[in-house]
């Protein structure tokens, strides 16, 4: 199945994030992400983003790695289309109508070398996502935006984003 759309929203009643994924075949999967799960997921997403880029992976200087990650993140997000509203009229719901409460995460690479993220409940079937650069960084951006709507007292930052802000502040003062 090919991913068509992805949406992440905060559900205040459940104090969870709801991730909805739709495929080009009309299937939809719904997943609950708790605060604990997001805190486990975020560093893995950042690591996948760093490992997916040969420019970042081969950079010896940690500060340069952070700056490159920030730059690649902004470039990938600029290529994503966040303008279309999520179309929630599924033909099929292979994981069921109720969202799965995620409990387990695995990362790896697919046969083409692309980053892979497997998301599973404590028991039963989950799903595996294979990421290109745009999708990986888009998930990061959507997750950051959703977490800002919570009262979890959690801030999801990419390494290097603080360098960019500090650099902008310096330029403003001068």
Keyword list:
174 residues; 6-stranded mixed beta sheet; Secreted effector protein pipB2 fold; 6 strands; alpha+beta; 25% strand; 5 helices
List the helices and strands and how they pair.
Layout: E1 3-11, E2 16-23, E3 28-33, H1 35-52, H2 54-57, H3 62-79, E4 100-109, E5 115-121, E6 127-130, H4 133-148, H5 161-173
Parallel strand pairs: 3-4
Antiparallel strand pairs: 1-2, 2-3, 4-5, 5-6
Helix pairs in contact: 1-4, 3-4
Please give the number of β-strands: 6
Q: Helix/strand/pairing class, anyone? A: alpha+beta
Gap between N and C termini:
52 Å
From the alpha-carbon coordinates, what is the Rg to the nearest angstrom?
A: 17 Å
Q: DSSP strand (E) fraction?
A: 25-35%
Q: What is the level 1 CATH name?
A: Alpha Beta
Mean pLDDT: 85
Structure overview:
This protein is an alpha+beta fold and 174 residues long. The chain has a single domain, classed as Secreted effector protein pipB2 fold (2-Layer Sandwich). The chain is built from 5 helices and 6 strands. It has helices at residues 35-52, 54-57, 62-79, 133-148, 161-173, and strands at 3-11, 16-23, 28-33, 100-109, 115-121, 127-130. The chain has a 6-stranded mixed beta sheet, sandwiched between helices. The longest helix has 18 residues, at 35-52. The termini are far apart.
């Amino acid at each position: 199945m090919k991913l068509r759309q992805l949406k992440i929203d905060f559900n205040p009643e459940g104090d969870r994030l709801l991730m909805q994924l739709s495929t080009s075949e009309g299937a939809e999967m719904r997943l609950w992400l708790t605060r604990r799960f997001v805190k486990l997921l975020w560093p893995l997403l950042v690591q996948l983003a760093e490992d997916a880029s040969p420019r970042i992976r081969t950079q010896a200087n940690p500060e340069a790695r952070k700056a490159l990650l920030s730059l690649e993140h902004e470039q990938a997000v600029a290529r994503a289309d966040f303008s279309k509203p999520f179309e929630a009229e599924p033909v099929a719901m292979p994981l069921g109508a109720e969202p799965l409460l995620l409990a387990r995460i695995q990362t790896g690479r697919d046969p083409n070398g692309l980053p892979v993220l497997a998301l599973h409940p404590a028991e039963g079937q989950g799903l595996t996502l294979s990421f290109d650069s745009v999708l990986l960084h888009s998930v990061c951006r959507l997750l950051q935006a959703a977490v800002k709507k919570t009262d979890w007292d959690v801030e999801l930052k990419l390494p290097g984003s603080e360098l960019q802000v500090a650099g902008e502040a310096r330029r403003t003062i001068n």
